[in-house]
Amino acid sequence: MKKIVSFNLSLVLLLLCGCAQQENKDTKFLLDTVVTLTASCDSETLDGAFELCQNYEKLLSRTIEGSDVYTLNNSDGFVEVDSHTSTIIKQAVFYGDLSGGRFDITIYPVSSLWDFNNEVIPSRDEIAEALKNIDYQSIEIDDNRVNLNGKKIDLGGIAKGYIADRVLEYFKENDVSEGIIDLGGNVVVFGDRDYTVGIKKPFTDNEIAASLVVKNKSVVTSGTYERYIKSDKAIYHHILDPKTGYACESDLTSATIIADSSMQADAYSTICILLGLDKALQLIEKEPNVEAIFIDNDGKIHHSSGLFLNNNEFALK
Predict the structure, then answer these.
(1) What does the DSSP assignment read for 155-191?
(2) Domain for residue 109, yes or no?
(3) Does the residue 263 lie in any domain?
(4) Which CATH number covers residue 70?
């Protein structure tokens, strides 16, 4: 049985192999993106998964007044936060260390200056001033008490992955045997079927650069082509270097990470763009159960050693 399903952003689910149980599917705008959930469950269970996403949005959004992140960004000293919030921040600090400071959730003072929808490019003076308030190492964490020490955070590079992992956990606790979790391109597939995921060719509408067969994995792509401003002098994309405040200089246009954890895949997809091809491959090769497909600025495809090419499709060894 073949079934065509489309995903948002950089990934397209091309084919589901095998016979499916009866599925429920719905789409809602949550987490500042389009969330599509497909699962072999009743509508009440599916609604519960969306409610879970809503609860995390109320907890982690930097714009919803009363959320943990909003409160942290507008408070001095230690703030008591939910255990989920502290867990994400701890992991973000870990990924900051892992990336040599390239992954930095205190990037918010700079990222808030860039308006990619309205093509607003901040001045050098504005960026220079904002850079003074970027330093993830200033964050103090004491159990569920967090002190940002005057910094402001944006969990956009890690929160959706964490939420996808919690939705998967919810489905398993409710005996849902298979499904697809798509949080705006942060994709988790689970169950007995293989899924073929298409990786979008950068700077095209729907052209596929490569396809990948996976089962019970998270697949996340970050790309410099997803949001950018093109001016007479340069192209400014949305993956910002916390050292300069501008789009990072990288020889990678796209990084797709395949992992058991969607949070890990989410963070690594951004980190790999920031690191560039050689260092990104070195990082992935050190990580068990994590693989990657990279597209460089010339359109050439590179992959980690745990993948092989079979009939024009990548698959895990």
Answers:
(1) -TTTHHHHHHHHHHHHHHHTT---EEEEETTEEEEES
(2) yes
(3) no
(4) 1.10.3980.10
Tell me how far apart the alpha carbons of residues 105 and 139 are, in angstroms, rounded to a whole number: 10
What is the H or E stretch that residue 25 is in? strand 24-30
The predicted model gives 26-37 an average pLDDT of 95
What pLDDT is attached to residue 1? 27
- Closest to 239 (Cα-Cα) out of 117, 123, 157: 157
* Closest C-alpha to 157, from 252, 235, 263, 53: 263
Give the integer Cα–Cα distance in Å for 55 and 69. Answer: 13
End-to-end alpha carbon distance in the chain: 25
Model confidence pLDDT, tens digit, residues 115-152? 998 899 999 999 999 999 999 999 999 999 999 999 99
For the segment 227-241, the average pLDDT, to the nearest whole number, is 88
- Output the average pLDDT for the chain: 92
Distance CA 161, CA 159 (A): 5
pLDDT at 192 over 90: yes
**Is residue 33 within a helix (H) or strand (E), and if so which, with residue range?**
strand 33-39
Nearest to 7 by CA among 161, 199, 168, 163: 199
Q: What angle do CA 317, 207, 312 make, to 5 degrees?
A: 30
In the 8-state DSSP scheme, what is residue 227?
A: S
- Average pLDDT, stretch 220-249? 91
Q: What percent of the chain has pLDDT over 70?
A: 93
Task: Please say if the pLDDT value at position 177 is more than 50.
Answer: yes
Q: pTM score, two decimals?
A: 0.92
Number of C-beta neighbours around residue 160 at 10 A: 25
Question: What residues form DSSP beta bridges with 27?
Answer: 36
Domain that holds residue 99: 59-147
Structural domain total, the chain: 1
- Is the pLDDT at 87 greater than 90? The verdict is yes
- The burial class, CB within 10 Å (0-12 / 13-18 / 19+), for 98 is middle
- Sheet arrangement for strand 208-214: 11-16, 195-200, 208-214, 313-316, 307-310
